[in-house]
């Protein structure tokens, strides 16, 4: 099915024309399975003992990340958001050592460095207590929610993305089948853009011109022009494959879509949504991230014991990272030497040597770690 030139907009508001700008036990993996289902409270698991940390090379030089964050210091901190215990574990990226765990009071799920989330002061993401979606702004220094924008609609949500002006954001509202565009400064909803059934994610091209969302319950992926939120095109996936999440490559040329039921990663041409490749993955692929140089892409498999590493040019699988049950989000140091992956089923963070493509250690996190970023 292909749909074009359709313009669907609710709650019309004056959006500017600026361009806009990612098998375990049933209880341990409920939070991953619920990523594209109505909210549910997962059961806790017993954290494993963490192996002794190893020492990494000297910290890399500062640089910009896909999140839009450029730090003034070479030191990097891994923020691991624990959904079950609603706290944040802080890891020294260079030393590969856990520093502390701080209370937060919110459950942060799919926050990653593939998204644009930092406005210069706050980390913007979302939560949906009682299945009521809200945007939240987190002070990274004090690890505290300092701003909340409630009543965005019926959850779950999966991706909040800041626009280039850093004053507005868009978020998928899966329970209401819309994308909400929000003024984060005033807290006002500017408009709601109808989508297909159960939009399960949201991601943009690097220039912010186009937005993509997988519509899980009708097996489609749609593309929007973010200047006026006009629907550009919708393409169909095989029935029952359930396109689960997606990410746009750093060069803006491809969209990698994980199918939750077909166990594949489908590579689309970002310009016309034509299928370029279909890559077998592990069980329950949920999201992917590219290394800073764009050469490798890592796909997390939520109901398997490994994450899949693909050559981003040839699409060939080059390695399997044995991270344990319930792989979730992955982030990389700025120089690309080390990866950190939250492993929800093991209550840990896998530390990955990206040169050798091996897991070198596991660090203990809180209960059900999921969201993960490096700042």
Helix-strand layout with pairing:
Elements: H1 30-33, E1 77-82, E2 87-92, E3 97-103, E4 123-127, E5 132-139, E6 144-154, E7 160-162, E8 168-173, E9 178-183, E10 188-194, E11 203-204, E12 210-215, E13 220-225, E14 230-236, E15 243-248, E16 254-259, E17 264-269, E18 275-280, E19 285-290, E20 296-301, E21 307-311, E22 317-321, E23 327-332, E24 338-343, E25 348-353, E26 358-364, E27 369-374
Antiparallel strand pairs: 1-2, 1-27, 2-3, 4-5, 5-6, 7-8, 8-9, 9-10, 11-12, 12-13, 13-14, 15-16, 16-17, 17-18, 19-20, 20-21, 21-22, 23-24, 24-25, 25-26
Describe what you observe in this structure.
The protein is mostly beta strands and 375 residues long. It has a single domain, classed as YVTN repeat-like/Quinoprotein amine dehydrogenase (Methylamine Dehydrogenase, Chain H, 7 Propeller). Helices cover 1% and strands 43% of the residues. It contains one helix and 27 strands. The strands form seven sheets. A four-stranded antiparallel sheet has the order 3-2-1-27, with no helix packed on it. Strands 7-8-9-10 form a four-stranded antiparallel sheet, with no helix packed on it. The protein has a four-stranded antiparallel sheet with strand order 11-12-13-14, with no helix packed on it. β5 (132-139) and β6 (144-154) form a beta hairpin. The longest helix is centred in the first third of the chain and has 4 residues, at 30-33. It is globular, with a radius of gyration of 19 Å. Residues 1-29 and 38-65 have low confidence and may be disordered.
């Amino acid at each position: 099915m292909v749909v074009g030139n359709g313009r669907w907009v609710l709650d019309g508001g004056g959006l500017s024309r600026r361009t806009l700008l990612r098998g375990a036990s049933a209880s341990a993996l409920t939070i991953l399975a619920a990523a594209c289902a109505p909210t549910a409270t997962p059961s806790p698991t017993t954290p494993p003992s963490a192996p002794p940390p190893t020492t990494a090379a000297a910290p890399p030089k500062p640089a910009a990340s896909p999140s839009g964050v450029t730090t003034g210091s070479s030191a990097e901190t891994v923020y691991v958001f624990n959904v079950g215990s609603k706290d944040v574990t802080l890891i020294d990226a260079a030393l590969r050592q856990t520093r502390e765990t701080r209370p937060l009071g919110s459950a942060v799920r799919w926050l990653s460095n593939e998204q644009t989330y930092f406005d210069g002061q706050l980390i913007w993401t979302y939560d949906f207590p009682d299945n009521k979606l809200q945007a939240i702004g987190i002070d990274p220094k004090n690890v505290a929610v300092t701003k909340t924008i409630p009543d965005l609609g019926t959850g779950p949500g999966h991706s909040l993305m800041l626009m280039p002006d850093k004053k507005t954001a868009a978020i998928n509202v899966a329970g209401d089948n819309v994308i909400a565009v929000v003024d984060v400064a005033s807290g006002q909803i500017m408009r709601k853009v109808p989508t297909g059934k159960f939009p399960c994610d949201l991601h943009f091209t690097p220039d912010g011109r186009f937005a993509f969302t997988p519509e899980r319950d009708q097996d489609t992926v749609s593309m929007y022009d973010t200047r006026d939120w006009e629907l550009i095109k919708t393409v169909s996936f095989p029935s029952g494959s359930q396109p689960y999440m997606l990410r746009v490559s750093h060069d803006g040329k491809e969209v990698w879509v994980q199918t939750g039921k077909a166990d594949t990663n489908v590579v689309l041409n970002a310009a016309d949504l034509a299928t370029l490749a279909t890559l077998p993955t592990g069980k329950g692929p949920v999201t992917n991230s590219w290394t800073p140089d764009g050469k490798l892409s890592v796909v997390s498999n939520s109901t398997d014991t490994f994450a899949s590493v693909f050559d981003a040019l040839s699409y060939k699988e080059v390695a399997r990272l044995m991270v344990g049950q319930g792989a979730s989000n992955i982030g990389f140091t700025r120089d690309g030497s080390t990866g950190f992956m939250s492993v929800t089923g093991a209550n840990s963070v896998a530390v990955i040597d990206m040169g050798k493509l091996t897991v070198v250690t596991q660090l203990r996190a809180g209960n059900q770690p999921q969201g993960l970023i490096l700042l």
